[in-house]
Amino acid sequence: MKILFLTTVLPARKLHGSEIASQNIIDALQQAGCAVTVLGYGRKEDGALHKAEHEILVADRSVETKKARFQAVGWFALSLIKQLPYSEVKYVSRRYIQQVQSLLNTQSYDAIVIDHSQVGWLLDVIDHPKIILVAHNLEHEIYRQHYQRSQNRLAKWVYRREAALVEAREARLASSATEVWALTQHDANYFAKFTKARTLNLPSGFVKMHDEPITKTFDIGIIGSWSWKPNEEGLRWFLQTVYPHLPQSLTIHVAGRGADWLMDSYPNIRYRGFVGDSQEFMMQARVMAIPVLSGGGIQIKTLDAIASGTCIVSTTTSLRGVANPPQTVSIADEPQQFAQLLTAVVSAEQSPEAFKEAQQWYCDRQARFLSEVDQAIHDLIAFRNHVGRASSLSGQDVRSTNQSGLL
Fold first, then answer.
1. Domains, in order of start, for the chain
2. For residue 383, what pLDDT band results from cuts at 50, 70 and 90?
3. Are 59 and 42 a contacting pair, CB within 8 Å?
4. Nearest to residue 130, comparing CAs of 379, 393, 395, 390?
5. Does residue 368 contact residue 28 with C-beta atoms inside 8 Å?
6. Are the C-beta atoms of 224 and 262 separated by less than 8 Å?
């Protein structure tokens, strides 16, 4: 089965959570016997790009507002003129359209995957009977959360507008898709109003597991992409409300790009920036703190932290989409309780049984995920054969009905 996978940023390097999720799905499709061609941008902020063989680069592009500078002003102006979400306009380009058209004119694909609603504008240049939407989260709910939490009147207007436009885009995408692959049951339930929706139990992004724990070198670890607003919000909540309840003797390491403002701000906190091996970082911590208060979809860093075997203290929100976590996971939403659990875990000795249970949880989830993707492909093939027979009997071509005008 040949699949064209249209995404925002080429994910093979798996530098960010969304890219890990996308690449996990691509890997599972390939393991199910699919030939996958991936089309997307290179993220300028990540430096030189090294493409995988199955990836096609549209162009290098800045996609983070803080890094884009004056280009961001142009994006916002275009979003106003075209009445498109700002988060989507960042990825609109004539070059992307031309690449898609060239591939569709020269290749025959059994299915097209739209990965992220931010490339949903490509519906206007796609004419195909089998379209799959991979919904990493319900984007409109995230912007609605930002709207509700913001105190700035201009920011509230921007977020309210974004939420409304993204909701309309998600509804149109789902209505045009053969089915939606969601990463939480909550999201699948929403998209089921429009089309068939299934939940994929996404696994960790780690490729290889360690058989035994490694030496612990610091007490509390926190990792994330801090340019993403829900992550930054959670980190600031931790620093402002949890940190004051922690003993100053504890060593805290924070990893991930985008929190340079944290450097040298606290005596016992070391900001390490980007770390090349997140698995090693997590395993070196006596406990991982995951203080997420908002957002949507599933947290890749939660899955990774569980797979590392390290003990975790997490908010309830950080565990969305994660059912029956192992005993290594503790939950706290109140700052003082969060701090108490962290302190208790640092002082305790982790049992080998708990480490093994966490790794078995990861293996079981990965096997379930591969089975789910394999079943999804089996269902698509059955659908293709059914449509082919119906088309042959009726003598009519089966074509997509996405008609909304070229952007």
1. 2-200 (3.40.50.2000), 218-359 (3.40.50.2000)
2. low
3. yes
4. 379
5. no
6. no
